Structures are given as C-alpha cells and as structure tokens.
C-alpha cells in the first residue's frame, strides 16, 4: 500500500472573518513558507530518589514562522500587519491542508504577531517574514475538532 505524501504547498493559513462561534475561514493569500513549532515548557521535578534530572511537561508552547508576499492592499497581509501594529490577537487557523478536508490537522488560536520583517532582495519580490505566538482571547483548539 502506497504512503500518502503530504506536500508543503498544501499547508494553509486562514483568518476567521466571522465570529468565534460561527467562523468564516478566509485563506490568507501570498503565504509562501509556514513552519509550526510545537514544543513544551518543562518544570524540573528532580528529587533525591534519582541520580538523573527529571522533568515534566508544564505548558505547551507553539509558534509559527512564515513568509508572505508583501502586498499592502491584500486583506490577509493587512490583517497580519494590523495585528502586529496593534498588538491585538488575531483568530487564525494553521493547517497542513484545506479547512474543509477532514484529514487536515493544525491549530486554531488567538495569535499575536511578534515579528514582521520585510525583505527587499534585489532580484526577488518583496517578502515579509512573520512570527506568530499564542496570545490571550480563547483556549487554542487542535484541529480537527472532534
């Protein structure tokens, strides 16, 4: 049986342009690369019972790094820029496929934009690198929601 290969180009970044309870997932266009780092913050739980340093997972820590074509009049680009400037969270869904594909996985969260760096390479289209981190607003939700 052949294995399904997940292509990076199928990853998607969506903005909720509806309400929290009734989201409307709008694709943010012009996104080139996306990397979601899904890690953990640990707490030391060592004791004299062991000769080893022991740790336990205390918190989940997730961030997203990406690049988007610099198009100031594009609604998705403008939403990310507005979130950076205001410091307010933006309801985004980061997936490895389409939001209506039951096999897609990812995370919905109130993301804050902590980095927004515009590159202006001589022989390239202008691109903006961005970093998203989880902010306040609601508890992040793993996708698909079961």
Give a brief outline of the structure.
With 146 residues, the protein is mainly beta. Helices cover 8% and strands 47% of the residues. A hairpin with an 8-residue loop joins strand 1 (12-16) and strand 2 (25-27).
Topology record:
Elements: E1 12-16, E2 25-27, E3 31-44, E4 55-69, H1 75-86, E5 90-95, E6 106-119, E7 127-134, E8 141-143
Antiparallel strand pairs: 1-2, 1-5, 3-4, 4-7, 5-6, 6-7, 6-8
Overall domain count? 1
Supply the CATH class.
Answer: Few Secondary Structures
The CATH topology assignment is Factor Xa Inhibitor
Number of helices: 1
Unreliable stretches covering 5 or more consecutive residues:
none
Radius of gyration: 18 Å
| Proportion of strand residues | over 45%
Instruction: Return the string of H and E elements.
Output: EEEEHEEEE
Helix coverage percent of residues? under 10%
